[in-house]
Amino acid sequence: MNKGHLIIISGPSGVGKGTVIKRLMQRHERLRFSVSATTRQMRPGEVDGVNYYFVTKERFEQMIANDELLEHACYVQNYYGTPEAPLDAMLEQGYDVLVEVEVQGALQIRKRRPEALLIFIAAPSFAELERRLRGRGDTAEDKMQKRLQTARWEYDMAAQYDYIVINDTVDAVTDEILAILTAESCRASNRMQFLKEANEHALSPDVGAAETH
Ligand code: 5GP
Predict the structure, then answer these.
(1) Which atom of ligand 1 is nearest to the CA of 108?
(2) How much is the CA Rg of the chain, to the nearest whole Å?
(3) Which of 8, 17, 30 is nearest to 117 (CA)?
């Protein structure tokens, strides 16, 4: 069986990543979500082990020391990190694994896993992003300014991603991401194993799984 794809999704606060991820999970049955560890407080409605593993700062630092995390970063004074072992287990089982991280984490993953697919979700416009953030109504003005400033920096960094998708509507952006995943599966390097197995007698024996020109 082919290993699954590692899909990294980032985007500014307020862009609607959570809703898009929920829709993707509904529409792609072999997609699994990598549950991150964080030291931030649990929000109403969140479930430990589902949205995040909520851990103490001491436990998080122990995870760093034990090299249990594929990446980690500090964001708005809290630690966030991606546990590596469960992610690899899902990939080995052939699942595509979706990791939602901020930009620093995404770039760390790119260094350690060059095959990862980096997708950045942007809002249709910056004014719309600000409108969505203000619509949440749960953020003081100084925090709002900080988030907008962070979002500007994140937009600058988006050039380093493989793809930028625009969250105009949830369905449209989900279609775009699924199209990217379909194209990725059809990449010759990913399909050679299939070709070998399906056409056992048609290919010359020395055709390797990763050989493409
Ligand atoms: P929130 O606290 O709103 O759930 O997430 C804050 C930010 O942390 C978001 O940009 C989210 O993408 C990012 N984040 C969530 N999990 C991880 C992780 O495991 N590693 C990193 N680097 N960022 C994460």
Answers:
(1) 22
(2) 19
(3) 8
Q: Ligand 1 pocket: which residues have CB below 6 Å? A: 36, 40, 71, 73, 75, 80-82, 100-102, 104-105
Q: What is the pTM of this model?
A: 0.90
Ligand 1 centroid to 182 CA: how many Å? 26
Structure tokens at 11: 């985007």
pLDDT one digit per residue (tens) for the chain, 213 residues: 678 999 999 999 899 999 999 999 999 999 999 999 999 999 999 999 999 999 999 999 999 999 999 999 998 889 999 999 999 999 999 999 999 999 999 999 999 999 999 999 999 999 999 999 888 776 788 888 888 999 999 999 999 999 999 999 999 999 999 999 999 989 998 888 888 888 876 667 666 555 544
Q: How far is the CA of 74 from the centre of ligand 1 (A)?
A: 9
Cβ-contact 116, 8 below 8 angstroms: yes
Atom of ligand 1 nearest to the CA of 82: 19
The protein residue with its alpha carbon nearest to ligand 1, atom 12, reads: 101
Q: Which two tokens stand for residue 69?
A: 């995390």
